[in-house]
TrEMBL record:
Name of the featured protein: Capsular biosynthesis protein CpsB
Alphabetized Pfam families for the sequence: Capsule_synth (PF05159)
InterPro entries membership: Capsule_polysaccharide_synth
Stretches with biased composition (Basic and acidic residues): 469-483
Lineage of the species this protein comes from: Bacteria, Pseudomonadati, Pseudomonadota, Betaproteobacteria, Neisseriales
Gene Ontology process terms (BP): polysaccharide biosynthetic process; polysaccharide transport
Superkingdom in the source lineage: Bacteria
Residue segments, region Disordered: 446-487
Length: 521
């Protein structure tokens, strides 16, 4: 089998060691494309525009709003390729603005064009550059059985995925899990942050049927949470000091990185987290007697285009001198759980950690673990209903019942034992099953012989091979004479029998053409 990865920046042994072990063990081929990280890791910031994409930039600078909105290559819309990366940059550099939650593709485009036109044009130009880049690359590349792509959110991966749709290469999107020891490996063309297949009720129920949820397997799953080590966050020591002087109930809001892809990719729309946190905090202060602890995400200090406590600083600025609000960043999360009565998040994986501690997390952004029986879920457009629930509920509504905790354990078992792959040796067995079941079918040569271009045989005694060649030539000639008598369906059927590869390659239906890759000429 032959594997391909578009970069080595994210696909590495630190995050996905068992994949590298699987490839080494099976002596499979692995082409890991090395492209300048200067281009790959810009995350929407193309102020210093790459020289190699300057032609695209000059082209799209001439486009008006309508042309930019509809700009496409080979039927692929360029804004759709870059919108996630573009929004991640816009949200990072404008924390002071109250962005709405965007629910449609058109809303996102209109906002970006009206407020950040130059950034929009540069990102569209880069999407075009990447589309052409991968098209040229794959034209000269060997046939790959599997492509391993990280996240699927950045423009360079979106463009590659679009190119791979027209090939027989199977696309797997990889993403790390908060345990630090497990990762997603899903066959899909979609970006994976907060969009895992396990989010689907049907998928989850089918996986539940296939997963051993015995006490033994549940214990293994719980141990993975217990022994987990988030790769991006190291827990500081406890402070053991009260956060408030009063004795009121406390609600803990678990913040996320302001431009996290899980916030801008999913059914809940593209969520501006700081705007939502502001509304949430203000309404809790106005409509309840809760103290509020806002836990900002410390990864913002290291995140590209941020390098600062963007969310924490903005929340503190907006609620300066508010006695019932405490904003923390580098704080032991277990200590915060110990001092909380309720936990709220948009769609952070820390909601799972809250459930682990016995809370029934309140979610506002349709997380992948939502509606599995152990969370209270609200749509981001219905924040008033969430506030009403918080203000009027007794403490019992904020904690898991035994039945709900059992559903939580079942979910952990399904995702950790049934779906995710361990980066340690235990993950190898699942990878063997995953890739062997999906490996490409061996191509068979076409049983229909090509017409023989032999000179006319005049010998009275002919070899079997020559007789077959002459017979075939006669048959083909006869077919040509009678072709006008065939119906269109009969002609297509005849073409399919003779050359399935050409039948699919010449199809007027674009979606059928990739099937040609499964046949030899």
């Amino acid at each position: 089998m032959r594997f391909f990865s578009p970069d080595s920046l994210h696909i590495n042994t630190k995050n996905f060691k068992s994949i590298f072990d699987f490839i080494t063990e099976g002596k499979h081929e692995f082409d890991q494309h090395i492209k300048d990280a200067r281009i790959i890791a810009n995350y929407g910031n193309y102020t210093d525009f790459p020289l190699e994409a300057s032609a695209q930039l000059e082209q799209y600078k001439q486009y008006n709003k309508e042309l930019l909105y509809t700009a496409q290559i080979d039927g692929v819309n360029l804004f759709k390729l870059c919108q996630l990366e573009l929004l991640s940059y816009v949200f990072a550099i404008t924390p002071h603005k109250d962005h709405p939650t965007f629910y449609t593709f058109e809303d996102i485009f209109n906002y970006c064009h009206n407020e950040h036109k130059e950034i929009l044009i540069r990102n569209i130009a880069m999407a075009a550059y990447w589309y052409h880049y991968w098209k040229r690359f794959l034209l000269n590349a060997p046939k790959y059985d599997f492509a391993l792509i990280f996240s699927g959110s950045l423009s360079y991966t979106r463009a590659l995925i679009e190119q791979l749709k027209t090939t027989s290469t199977r696309v797997f999107i990889l993403e790390t899990f908060f345990t630090g020891n497990d990762f997603y490996c899903e066959e899909t063309f979609e970006a994976i942050p907060n969009n895992s297949q396990i989010k689907s009720e049907n998928y989850y129920n089918q996986l539940l049927k296939l997963t051993d949820t015995s006490h033994k397997e549940k214990t293994k799953a719980l141990n993975k949470i217990q022994l987990g080590c988030n790769l991006n966050v190291k827990q500081p020591p406890r402070k053991n000091a009260p956060l408030f002087k009063n004795k009121r109930r406390t609600i803990l809001i678990l913040g996320q990185v302001a431009n996290d892809f899980s916030l801008i990719n999913g059914q809940g729309g593209a969520i501006s987290s700081i705007s939502l946190y502001t509304k949430l905090i203000q309404k809790i202060l106005d409509q309840s007697d809760f103290n509020i602890v806002f836990k900002a995400h410390p990864w913002e200090l290291k995140k590209t285009n941020m390098k600062a406590n963007v969310t924490a600083d903005e929340i503190q600025r907006r609620f300066a001198n508010e006695q019932r609000l405490c904003v923390v960043s580098d704080f032991n999360i277990d200590e915060l759980f110990d001092n909380a009565d309720s936990v709220v998040t948009i769609n952070s994986q820390s909601g799972i950690e809250a459930a682990w501690q016995g809370f029934k997390p309140i979610t506002l952004g349709l997380p992948f673990y939502g509606h599995k029986g152990f969370s209270t879920d609200f749509h981001p457009s219905n924040i008033d209903a969430a506030i009403d629930f918080i203000a009027k509920s007794p403490n019992d509504n904020f904690n898991l019942t035994l039945q709900e905790y059992d559903k939580f354990e079942t979910f952990l078992t399904v995702i950790l034992q049934g779906q995710l792959i361990s980066k340690h040796p235990s993950g190898l067995a699942k990878l063997r099953t995953l890739f062997s079941a999906l490996s490409a079918v061996t191509y068979q040569s076409n049983p229909i012989k090509s017409p023989q271009r032999e000179p006319k045989i005049t010998h009275s005694t002919e070899s079997t091979q020559n007789r077959e060649a002459i017979s075939e030539e006669k048959a083909i000639s006869e077919d040509k004479r009678n072709s006008t008598e065939l119906t269109p369906f009969q002609r297509k059927l005849r073409k399919f029998k003779r050359s399935p590869k050409r039948f699919f390659a010449d199809s007027k239906h674009k979606w059928m053409r990739p099937l040609a890759h499964f046949f030899r000429a």
